[in-house]
């Protein structure tokens, strides 16, 4: 795989300074066009404000770009039909021309190759509801297991089956470490009712575990609950997810298209409150990821 690492990012990696990798599928597919560029820029600003270097990852003309510039960021946020690139799609898209937005799975693989041990996202992919029939499980889980990277996320998206997602992560040997919580966070909602085996209370504690896990050549999830002031009501969100999942089934939406479909349906149903919550948790995760990267580089 050809990497195109931005000079600033390459310098920081070589100097063992703090770098946070960011995925780009959320920019191209996870947020509405009207807010995605501004949010992508805000995430980079949050990371810089704490003294770390952001490296948004995407594909461009046969290369994995580590630290996209303004121009590519604007293309990812603004163009329609940007391919969503998970592990299955990496080689086919890299073999061609054009741009691609990387999921957490593709992002952690590229970050690991570049030597960046911290990736920030909103929520990782996981096991979909009804996966016992559809077999729809995100490649994020195996990719995190296989790559020495700590993914900072607000748990997994609430549209998933969170209990099954935790089971799969356990099988894959991926520690899910609560950041100031004993429960697996549920994206827009602070609590899922699912207990976590491991907890830390600050970035230093997270760094101690991340160092051990990365040394094993494997990844982990640092699960950061959304701030109470930004979180949404669990029952309301649950019923919207159920409604949107039924609609998706009726309309035959499956596979890679399902997550963006469900997220946008919930956005409409909550009149934008879900979007504000999503942006708030993305920003918070970027800050925790920067603190973790700083702790790791100290
Ligand atoms: N969380 C969001 N919006 C997103 C995603 C996560 O709020 O768009 C993306 C991430 O890039 C994640 C991907 O890696 O969805 C998982 O997709 P799939 O289930 O198709 O693997
Ligand atoms: Mn899937």
Shape: globular
Mean pLDDT figure: 96
Order of helices and strands: EHEHHEEHEHEHEHHEHEEHEHHH
Ligand roster? pseudouridine-5'-monophosphate, manganese (II) ion
Strand proportion, as a percent range, falls in: 5-15%
Spans of at least 5 consecutive residues whose pLDDT stays below 50 are none
Overall tally of domains: 1
What is the radius of gyration? 17 Å
CATH class: Alpha Beta
Query: What is the β-strand count?
Result: 11
CATH superfamily: Indigoidine synthase domain
CATH architecture: 3-Layer(aba) Sandwich
Q: Describe the biggest sheet?
A: 11 strands, mixed
Structural class: alpha/beta
- N- to C-terminal separation? 30 Å
Q: Quickly count the helices.
A: 13
Helix % is: 40-55%
CATH topology: Indigoidine synthase fold
Walk me through the topology.
Blueprint (H helix, E strand, L loop, with lengths): L2 E3 L1 H8 L4 E4 L2 H6 L2 H17 L3 E8 L2 E4 L3 H9 L5 E2 L1 H8 L4 E4 L1 H11 L3 E3 L10 H4 L5 H7 L3 E4 L8 H11 L3 E4 L18 E3 L2 H13 L4 E4 L10 H18 L6 H12 L3 H25 L1
Parallel strand pairs: 1-4, 2-3, 2-7, 5-6, 7-8, 8-11, 9-10, 9-11
Antiparallel strand pairs: 3-4, 3-6
